[in-house]
Amino acid sequence: MPGVLPDRQQAKSPRARALMWNLRIDAAVAEFVGTLGDRGICSIVLKGPTLNGWYPEDSDRIYLDGDVLVAPGDLRGATAALAALGYRPASDQRGLPQWWLDHASGWERDRDGVAIDLHARLQGVELDPAAAWDRLWSDRELFTLAGSLATKLSEPAQALYATLHATHHGVRNTRGLRNLNAALEAVQEPDWRAALELAGELDALAAFTTGLRLTAAGSELAERLGAPVVRSVKTELFANTPPPVALGFEQVASARGLRRLEVVLRKLVPPPGFIRHWWPPAAHSRRMLAAGYLYRPVWLLRRAPAGYRAWRAARRRASSSS
Hints:
There is one protein chain. This protein is α+β, with helices and mostly antiparallel strands. The protein has three domains: about 1-155, Beta Polymerase, domain 2; about 155-230; about 245-320, no CATH class. It is built from 13 helices and seven strands. The chain has helices at about 15-40, 75-85, 130-140, 155-170, 175-185, 190-200, 205-210, 215-225, 235-240, 245-255, 260-270, 270-280, 285-320; strands at about 45, 65-70, 90, 105-110, 115-120, 140-145, 150. The strands form two sheets. A five-stranded mixed sheet has the order 1-2-5-4-3, with helices on one face. A two-stranded antiparallel ribbon has the order 6-7. The protein is globular, with a radius of gyration of 20 Å. It starts with 13 loop residues before the first helix and ends with a helix. The mean pLDDT is about 90.
């Protein structure tokens, strides 16, 4: 199972277990990056080993998967490379509309339990993904990963992404907040100023400034930087770890004309691959898949009141900054 240490490592110290698992992830990501390079595809490694400099050498920090960003135009070639290396999609996204797709697709490899998230865009960045890639690639940095050269974000972009990641996963996600707090400790203020400027270029100010203010230290930094208070309904929802269905209300509200009806129908009747992943019993047989479709509207209705309240609260917070 991806992200779970093998039994033989369970008895080791937390530090030893983290180190052994991280080395396995590093080797797998280096292999993938090398395969991409052989196919003429550029890539940027996110999080994971690129953040080691923010943590003390004796840290027991562990990263559960690898994260790699490619240009949107190279996404198909990158997925083919993953398949050639023995990875399979963690979920079936066939048939899902573009507005439903996440910022990354998860891939898993059974033989070693490694998981890789393939990114075509960064959370919270509203600039066109191709233009965002060009901007990030323009000031990339090289680093050594498992004995090979790879590319990572510059320090300001790393700080920006740690903040965007914390916003996306919200105040209840300790892993995202841990990386943000590490960045607040390690990254110098001039680089944070550059991160704020980069957020503006990438149309990511709402996610960046919201994320900074998730912690007391980040709020103090935001004041020193003169960071504006920029809020959006989407970032307010993510940052406050919304209940199920809340984001769906925003997707419906943001749609126009017949597109709004499409969003509602898609949410009620998504593709079979989604149902099988969302409700695991549906993967067992066609009969259970049919039961999953019958259960879907019941599940949505039961969670709609809490989701609606969270969405209305996010709208109020977003409108208070305008």
